[in-house]
Amino acid sequence: MAKSLNSIAQKLMETGKGILAADESEGTIAKRFAKINLPNTLDLRRDYREMLFRSTTAMQNYISGVILTEETLEQQAADGTAFRAILADADVIPGIKVDRGAFPMPGDSGEKITEGLDGLRQRLTRYADLGAGFAKWRAVITINDVAPTRNNIRANAHALARYAILCQEAGIVPVVEPEVVGDGEPGNHSLERCAAVTGEVLENVFKELRLAGVELSGMLLKPNMVLPGVNSRERPTVEEVAQRTVSVLREHVPAAVPGIAFLSGGQTDEEATAHLSAMNQIAGKPWPLTFSYGRALQNVALRTWAGRRENFPAAQAAFTHRAHMNSLAALGTWSGELDKAA
């Protein structure tokens, strides 16, 4: 089992490729559609995902896996072709978001705990039968004047470990996502505060993973980058963010993990690409680093599509461009000049 899990993880970390996060909940995609004045309907959600998945050049050359929702895992394109078949034709591994969302943690700290463990073993069996090769569970760690608390870090780390071992039992690679969020209130924490919290979170997560018996060679990590809060006056350089992030990872992530796929965490498209490329220019890392982006891959494509099937080619070109740029970042060869020229 460990060998086959490792094989899936290695394929997801294929050189120059990354993971497309297309697992927006109905509420999240409703907000994104609202920004371009679109109603949140089943047909429009289907058309949008179809546009992305049928971006042949992007999917074949730059994407190794796609995180889906339950709806999308079983959905068909307008012509009746299952999305799973479209992904298989591009040699892309389908994944599935399995958590049920982050909910307020009891107490006054403004923290959240991710739920969804009840019935997860049975759901994972079904997802595996539908062809899901990997899964994702997101824990949200808030930074404010009183948070994160040790209780919240421990509770989220424990839930991540329980999720991960259930995934491996079902033959599914768990993508473990502990996200230290930078946009909570007041959102003015420093780069060093983020680094300290990220390190503490990762230390606790890997402690719980080991206690649960999770095979580290059969999982992937999806962490935040180390960044100051959104309302901080601190403006670190791209190189400072890259060095600080890699330093924290070196201290707390075992070399046995097959790879790290970053979330974009509210960065602009180009910021997420620039930081990833700078990290890949740092020598001596024991694991490959790539992307697992949602908004940072989809923003321009979503606006270009605008709910119209006739806009598919232009939207697919926009998506392919961002996927290509992030592929270069995963190789450490991206530059802003190249991005603008392309």
From TrEMBL:
**What are the UniProt keywords, alphabetically?**
Glycolysis, Lyase
List the Gene3D superfamilies: Aldolase class I
One annotated GO molecular function: fructose-bisphosphate aldolase activity
Read off the Pfam families from this record. Answer: Glycolytic (PF00274)
InterPro entries (alphabetical):
Aldolase_TIM (IPR013785), FBA_I (IPR000741)
Q: What does it catalyze?
A: beta-D-fructose 1,6-bisphosphate = D-glyceraldehyde 3-phosphate + dihydroxyacetone phosphate
**SUPFAM superfamilies attached to this UniProt entry:** Aldolase (SSF51569)
According to its UniProt record, the EC number is: 4.1.2.13
Query: What's the protein here called?
Result: Probable fructose-bisphosphate aldolase class 1
Q: Which organism is it from?
A: Devosia epidermidihirudinis
The root-end lineage is: Bacteria, Pseudomonadati, Pseudomonadota, Alphaproteobacteria, Hyphomicrobiales
